[in-house]
Design a protein that fits this description.
Blueprint: H1 7-37, H2 56-72, H3 78-85, H4 89-101, H5 107-136, H6 142-164, H7 169-207
Helix pairs in contact: 1-2, 1-4, 1-5, 1-6, 1-7, 3-5, 4-5, 5-7
Length: 208
């Protein structure tokens, strides 16, 4: 086992995991379970509640869900439908993952972690869904595959960094948060411009 994490490391790890769960909840569950099962990413004693993720049945279910998401996320509009369904699933999953990281001896901290973890996951999920809606507006089919693949690689790499080097997990969380906010702003601007263009066209048609 690694040394007991400090408060900032636990906070960074919880933040990283909750934000990443908004992109790839099942991959977060599967990667964490595999890493613990094979001892690649040992966890400190107070995080042993996460060992449930190393259960073969849970890893099997997470693997099936990860595979389904891998393919669904690369097809235009199917990815948006998948995101719509997971608007209710990802925040709860992210909140539970965050809950498993914090000290179980402090109920107040756990309640705060559950609320903030679910909120962070919902924020990240919103940025993903909004960005994908923008990408789906493109007439060619390859941008979905490219964006989805980048998300796969980024999530896997960020998970590795957060668990292998918990001292930089806070930095990972900050970078993730910056990316999430940037994507949300980009999607918002695009959607507003799209609706504005559509409104102008309707007015022109009505005038003619």
């Amino acid at each position: 086992m690694t040394e007991h994490m400090g408060a900032m490391e636990v906070l960074g790890l919880a933040g990283s995991l909750s934000l990443l769960a908004g992109w790839r909840l099942y991959l977060c569950i599967l990667a964490t379970g595999i890493a613990m099962h094979f001892g690649v990413l040992p966890l400190p004693d107070h995080l042993e509640s996460l060992q449930i993720l190393a259960n073969p049945w849970i890893m099997g279910a997470a693997a099936v869900a990860t595979l389904a998401e891998f393919f669904a996320d690369k097809v235009a509009w199917i990815d948006s439908a998948w995101d719509a369904v997971h608007t209710f699933i990802r925040p709860v999953g992210g909140a539970l993952l965050t809950l498993a990281i914090v000290d179980p001896a402090d109920p107040t901290t756990q309640v705060i972690a559950f609320i903030l973890g679910g909120g962070a996951t919902l924020l990240s999920h919103g940025s993903k869904a909004g960005t994908r809606a923008v990408v789906n507006a493109s007439p060619e089919p390859f941008s979905n595959i490219a964006v989805s693949t980048v998300e796969d690689v980024a999530t896997g790499g960020a998970l590795y960094l957060a668990y292998q080097y918990p001292e930089i997990a806070g930095l990972v969380a900050l970078v993730m948060l910056a990316i999430v906010i940037a994507l949300l702003l980009m999607a918002r601007r695009f959607i507003r411009a799209l609706f504005g263009r559509g409104r102008n066209q309707s007015q022109d048609t009505a005038a003619n």
